[in-house]
Amino acid sequence: MTQPFDAAKASAAYQNALEVIASVEPTIAGAIKAELADQRSSLKLIASENYASPATLLTMGNWLSDKYAEGTVGHRFYAGCQNVDTVEQTAADHAKALFGAPHAYVQPHSGIDANLVAFWAILAQRIESPALAEVGAKHVNDLSDEDWDKLRKALGDQRMLGMSLDAGGHLTHGFRPNISGKMFNQRSYGTDPETGLLDYDAVAAAAREFKPLVLIAGYSAYPRKVNFAKMREIADEVGATLMVDMAHFAGLVAGKVFTGDFDPVPHAHVTTTTTHKSLRGPRGGMVLCQPEYADSVDRGCPMVLGGPLSQTMAAKAVALAEARRPSFQTYAQAVADNAVTLAEGLMKRGVKLVTDGTENHLVLLDVSSYGITGRQAESALLDAGIVTNRNAVPRDANGAWYTSGVRIGTPALTTRGFGADEFDKVAELIVDVLSATTPTTTPAGAPSKAKYTLGDGVADKTRAASAELLDKHPLYPGLELA
Ligand code: DSN
């Protein structure tokens, strides 16, 4: 399911590029080659990773990188931006067409940056403060530095309601380690303690009580669909702006797996995403929004972003063009189908999954029944060549560092062409490793949360079985480097 490409041309392009790089700094050329070898030889199951196409990757290595272009299309703070205008407009046009969005802003350098742009736009658009009238301004965007001093005090206590971290929410949804937790007074909604599912009545009750300015929907570790029509009803009832962070599942939206009530774009006032996860583009971010937020969103640079990375915007345009092809819908459906196969394969072998299944691209394993932490599971799986990441489960007794969970996603291996048979085998390999992992004992006699032993020969046996699967579905087939 890799995006089709001309292997001979891609091989020549990369080989020549590496030789040019090696003539200046061979260590870097070596690291680039080694990364391809590593990616080819491991079972990549990190839910937020993927493999972009050679066309997308090659688009990032060129002279577009040398151009400054702060501002927006047709309104730049530098001369000579006509080609960057073409790039940015093309990417935005593809994004609008792909997602059916009235407006798209493709400059954010990452998901966090996209969220910052969105937060700024919502504050700028929504704040009605006596301080504005006091200084004779209609809009936050019109304030002078002096006005800001007054307004900062009057803006206090803006509220944000988002999913709790242990239910699968994201740090940028109002949590303290991120600026969003400082800009906003945050409250979280969790999931039902019995089912692990989002309880919309509980979200509505929290919204009625808390009256947030921003209701955030979206997640990085919740294995289910979200009904965005219901979330919008809740937002409307309490006068909140609905912001959806679809970073994880943008590929499922683009590929029409999530439609109707489950497609965030028509329901949210502002939708943010990264472009490199299930969407399979270059590393970066993007904001889609309703027309009334467009002017503030377009002020993202220089309000909260540095100058646009034109080479990355160009690669976004290429990846979005790929995602508009029918083959991407086949890919997205396979990502979701493979997640179901993986979930069933794990559950039939006795693994406990949060929510007892999946409706998207990821599954969240609760590994506590193996007597190990998420950290031990993550490390033991890595020893065996299976790349995952530990993740808290709801109400996690081991906290956010050691955790009791492991998050596993299907986008990357689906790009390699893995199907139901392969994902069932992957489930078997994961269970073999977890079953053979035992915590060591601390000097005080308690089980360690970090150290472990893995049964003799399990890592080698798993690597050999993985290699068979990986050989059957090579990454970038036909791409050869000397
Ligand atoms: N780091 C991304 C993830 O792995 O989900 C989200 O920020």
Automatic annotation (TrEMBL):
<dbReference type="GO" id="GO:0032259">
    <property type="term" value="P:methylation"/>
</dbReference>
<dbReference type="InterPro" id="IPR039429">
    <property type="entry name" value="SHMT-like_dom"/>
</dbReference>
<keyword id="KW-0554">One-carbon metabolism</keyword>
<comment type="subunit">
    <text>Homodimer.</text>
</comment>
<dbReference type="InterPro" id="IPR015421">
    <property type="entry name" value="PyrdxlP-dep_Trfase_major"/>
</dbReference>
<comment type="function">
    <text>Catalyzes the reversible interconversion of serine and glycine with tetrahydrofolate (THF) serving as the one-carbon carrier. This reaction serves as the major source of one-carbon groups required for the biosynthesis of purines, thymidylate, methionine, and other important biomolecules. Also exhibits THF-independent aldolase activity toward beta-hydroxyamino acids, producing glycine and aldehydes, via a retro-aldol mechanism.</text>
</comment>
<feature type="domain" description="Serine hydroxymethyltransferase-like">
    <location>
        <begin position="23"/>
        <end position="125"/>
    </location>
</feature>
<comment type="similarity">
    <text>Belongs to the SHMT family.</text>
</comment>
<keyword id="KW-0808">Transferase</keyword>
<protein>
    <recommendedName>
        <fullName>Serine hydroxymethyltransferase</fullName>
        <ecNumber>2.1.2.1</ecNumber>
    </recommendedName>
</protein>
<keyword id="KW-0489">Methyltransferase</keyword>
<dbReference type="GO" id="GO:0008168">
    <property type="term" value="F:methyltransferase activity"/>
</dbReference>
<dbReference type="GO" id="GO:0019264">
    <property type="term" value="P:glycine biosynthetic process from serine"/>
</dbReference>
<feature type="site" description="Plays an important role in substrate specificity">
    <location>
        <position position="276"/>
    </location>
</feature>
<dbReference type="Pfam" id="PF00464">
    <property type="entry name" value="SHMT"/>
</dbReference>
<dbReference type="InterPro" id="IPR015424">
    <property type="entry name" value="PyrdxlP-dep_Trfase"/>
</dbReference>
<dbReference type="GO" id="GO:0004372">
    <property type="term" value="F:glycine hydroxymethyltransferase activity"/>
</dbReference>
<keyword id="KW-0028">Amino-acid biosynthesis</keyword>
<dbReference type="InterPro" id="IPR049943">
    <property type="entry name" value="Ser_HO-MeTrfase-like"/>
</dbReference>
<dbReference type="GO" id="GO:0030170">
    <property type="term" value="F:pyridoxal phosphate binding"/>
</dbReference>
<comment type="pathway">
    <text>Amino-acid biosynthesis; glycine biosynthesis; glycine from L-serine: step 1/1.</text>
</comment>
<comment type="pathway">
    <text>One-carbon metabolism; tetrahydrofolate interconversion.</text>
</comment>
<keyword id="KW-0663">Pyridoxal phosphate</keyword>
<dbReference type="InterPro" id="IPR001085">
    <property type="entry name" value="Ser_HO-MeTrfase"/>
</dbReference>
<feature type="domain" description="Serine hydroxymethyltransferase-like">
    <location>
        <begin position="158"/>
        <end position="430"/>
    </location>
</feature>
<dbReference type="InterPro" id="IPR019798">
    <property type="entry name" value="Ser_HO-MeTrfase_PLP_BS"/>
</dbReference>
<feature type="binding site">
    <location>
        <position position="165"/>
    </location>
    <ligand>
        <name>(6S)-5,6,7,8-tetrahydrofolate</name>
    </ligand>
</feature>
<dbReference type="GO" id="GO:0035999">
    <property type="term" value="P:tetrahydrofolate interconversion"/>
</dbReference>
<feature type="modified residue" description="N6-(pyridoxal phosphate)lysine">
    <location>
        <position position="277"/>
    </location>
</feature>
<dbReference type="GO" id="GO:0005829">
    <property type="term" value="C:cytosol"/>
</dbReference>
<dbReference type="InterPro" id="IPR015422">
    <property type="entry name" value="PyrdxlP-dep_Trfase_small"/>
</dbReference>
<feature type="binding site">
    <location>
        <begin position="169"/>
        <end position="171"/>
    </location>
    <ligand>
        <name>(6S)-5,6,7,8-tetrahydrofolate</name>
    </ligand>
</feature>
<keyword id="KW-0963">Cytoplasm</keyword>
